[in-house]
Structures are given as C-alpha cells and as structure tokens.
Amino acid sequence: TVRDEIIPWAQATVDLGDDVLEVGPGFGATTDVFRETVAALTSVEIDPALAARLADRLAGTNVTVVEGDATALDLPDGRFSGAVYFSMLHHVPTPELQDRIFAEVARVLRPGAPFVASDSVHRDDLEAFHEGDTYLPLDPATIADRLAAQGFVAVEVEAHEYGWAARACNPG
Q1: For the chain, what is the total number of helices (H) and then of strands (E)?
Q2: Burial of 74 (C-beta count, 10 Å sphere; 0-12/13-18/19+)
C-alpha cells in the first residue's frame, strides 16, 4: 500500500524537491519507500527508541534521522524543499499540538514549498487498536481551515471512508 498507493499519491501533483522533511516516521515503513524517491530525507521522530533504531538501520543512506519534537523543531527556517507526514498526527494528543506541528512545518519550508499529509479518520476498529495509546484523528472537514490558519495556501483535501489526504503550499 505504501509503495503502490500512498507514496505515488503524495508525489502525483507536486515536486517535493531535493531536501524533504518527514514528520513522525515511527519504525520507518514509509521512510523505506519514500527515501527511494527523493535526494535527501530528514525524518524527525519523537520516540527515542524508534529514532535510534531507524538511525542505525538507515546509516549511510540519504536519510538523516533526528530525534525531536515536531511541535518545536530544532531546524532552521526555510530549509526544506518539501515536507510530508503519513498517518502519524492521530498520535498527537491535542488539536493545539497538532496545529503546532502544522505551524512548525510551515516555518521550516522554503517559500512555495509543498506539504503533503495523509491520515486515517475515526473508526471504532482503529480506536480499539490504539487502546492504551493516543488516538485523536482529525476531522477531514476541518483540515483545510486548520492548515490555512497556520499559513498554508492552495490547500486541497481529499476524504474517503478510511482516511484523508491533503496537499498545501507554504506561501513564504
């Protein structure tokens, strides 16, 4: 699914450029596929154990793994040519922190750079799967306004019964 659907969709109508930020790679399922399609990938992971394992596994590749909090990125303004996240925002415990991630991504993107994101929608089976874990999926009807409030323009959101996907641009 990652190789055949998610990554091709993410790159279908945007050029993410040569220096891409990935937020919340977790154990790296999307990272493994996505890194094959970009020149340089910086993956920011908040969980120290996951970040360390991913960094060890991808040492010597085009991926730099940074252990860090995406609500307060220790990265320079305007560095990245594009940014992505795949199915991680529902692990962030409040809408305010989710929006802070959007704001930080906007800050580290170059003027005109694209941001591509996708995640699931609320479903009872997913909520049960996340028992004991944070599970706060976004309502697709609110995503465009939330991204715009953090400075993104040209926001497009596609929703379906299992999830949503959004493309937006940093106006710079």
Answers
A1: 6, 7
A2: exposed
Report the C-alpha gap between 138 and 120 in whole angstroms.
8
C-beta of residue 128 within 8 angstroms of C-beta of residue 167: no
The DSSP symbol for 86 reads E
Which has the minimum average pLDDT: 95-104, 108-117, 127-136? 127-136
Helices 95-108 and 140-149 cross at an angle (nearest 10°) of 50
Q: With 80 as the cut, is the pLDDT of residue 126 above it? A: no
Closest CA to 47 of 67, 64, 23: 67
For 145-163, the pLDDT digits (tens) are 999 999 999 999 988 777 7
Q: How far, in Å, CA of 128 to CA of 73, rounded? A: 31
Distance between CA atoms of 34 and 124, rounded to whole angstroms? 29
Would the pLDDT of 82 be above 90? yes
Percent of the chain with pLDDT over 90: 58
Tell how far CA 38 is from the center of its chain. Answer: 15
- Record the pTM: 0.89
Burial class (CB in 10 A: 0-12, 13-18, 19+), 89: buried
Helix (H) or strand (E) holding 49: helix 48-57
Pairing of strands 163-169, 153-160: antiparallel
